[in-house]
Each structure stands twice: as C-alpha cells, then as structure tokens.
C-alpha cells in the first residue's frame, strides 16, 4: 500500500526516532509499504518519519544512481545490489574529505541543493529479521544512507545548508508546508494553525 509522504513543516520530521523492538506490530507490512511508497515516488530512500512514524528505520534502493556513467563498475554493482532495510541503525564513523552532491528529498519536493558529507561511513544496524550487521559504505551508497539516517535523527538536508542558501529556499519551504505544491505522489501536509 502506498502511504502519503509527510511534507516539510510536520513536527514528526524534526523528532529523533525511537528504537524499534522485535515485536513491533505489523513490521513486515510497514517495510513492504515503505518500499512501495518509495518506488511510487521515484525515490532511492525513505525513512519512517517520512510516513509519519518517529521510529529508527529506513529503506533504501539506490539502483537508479547506477545509471550515472561517471561512476566505477564496482560502485555500480554496489548500488544495484543495495536494496536494504536498516532498523535501529547507528553510524559509528564518518571519514574522508567532505564532498558536495546535489540532494533532494521526497518530503521537500522541488528543492535541490548541494550538501557536503564525508565519503565513507561505518554503520551498525539490524535487518528485518533483527540480525545485527556492521558494514562500511562509500560514495553514493554512503550518501543515501547518511541522508536517510539524518531523518531518524530529526535532521533534514535543508538544515545543513548555509544561512544564505536557506534564505534562498525559504519561500519554497513555506509553500510546501502550506500544501502549495503539486507532486506526482500522495503527500500529507502539516495541520495549519488557524489565525483569529
């Protein structure tokens, strides 16, 4: 089932996610719905807060990035085989020289900006069967994971922009939070307070 994606301005996007217990209700269905929602919106990652749940889980499938001709065969293979669920993840290390990449977000449609991140990460997480893994990722794979990980920490990519860049996108962000945007996928907009 395709779920509505929570739009910028909803408080759930600024909450730090809670750990998920093994007996979390309907977890396999939630995971399936999140993948379906992500694919339906042509995304490469989706975090639980983006479907209104302040829990520590995200799904990724960065295969579309493998079409970029500037990346190595090794990185292509990684991206094509990285459909994955991350439950209760913890990034333990980020290393290397920061690099900029133009990022977007399904919760913040029509806003794309360069964001600097470190190129290599180590992450410990549980899979859908609650088996624990510790893995290292680099390049675009690491970036997708870092972006989704930020979501479960209550951080949006726009929080990483310079004050100048934030001013430039302020109007767009306000319009998104007011529902003044069209997308090809379902969105849930924040409940606006009525002014007297």
From TrEMBL:
Pfam family, one: Pep_deformylase
Reactions catalysed, as given in the entry: N-terminal N-formyl-L-methionyl-[peptide] + H2O = N-terminal L-methionyl-[peptide] + formate
Annotated cofactor note: Binds 1 Fe(2+) ion.
Enzyme Commission number: 3.5.1.88
Keywords for this protein: Hydrolase, Iron, Metal-binding, Protein biosynthesis
UniProt GO molecular function: metal ion binding; peptide deformylase activity
Sites where the protein binds Fe cation: 105, 147, 151
GO biological process: translation
Record has Cell membrane as a keyword: no
Cofactor requirement: Fe(2+)
Active site: residue positions: 148
Family designation: Belongs to the polypeptide deformylase family.
Protein name: Peptide deformylase
Organism: Mesonia hippocampi
Lineage of the organism: Bacteria, Pseudomonadati, Bacteroidota, Flavobacteriia, Flavobacteriales
């Amino acid at each position: 089932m395709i779920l509505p994606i929570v739009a910028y301005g909803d408080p759930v996007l600024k909450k730090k996610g809670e750990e998920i217990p093994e007996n979390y209700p309907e977890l396999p269905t939630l995971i399936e719905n999140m993948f379906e929602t992500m694919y339906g919106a042509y995304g490469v990652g989706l975090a639980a807060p983006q479907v209104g749940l302040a829990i520590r889980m995200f799904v990724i499938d960065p295969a579309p990035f493998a079409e970029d001709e500037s990346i190595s065969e090794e990185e292509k293979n990684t991206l094509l085989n990285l459909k994955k669920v991350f439950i209760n993840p913890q990034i333990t290390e980020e290393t290397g020289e920061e690099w900029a990449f133009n990022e977007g977000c399904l919760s913040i449609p029509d806003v794309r900006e360069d964001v600097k991140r470190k190129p290599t990460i180590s992450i410990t997480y549980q899979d859908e069967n609650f088996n624990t893994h510790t893995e290292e990722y680099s390049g675009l794979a690491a970036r997708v994971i870092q972006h989704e990980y930020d979501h479960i920490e209550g951080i949006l990519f726009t929080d990483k922009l310079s004050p100048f860049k934030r001013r430039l996108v302020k109007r767009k962000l306000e319009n998104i939070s007011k529902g003044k945007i069209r997308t090809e996928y379902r969105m849930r907009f924040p409940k606006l307070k009525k002014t007297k």
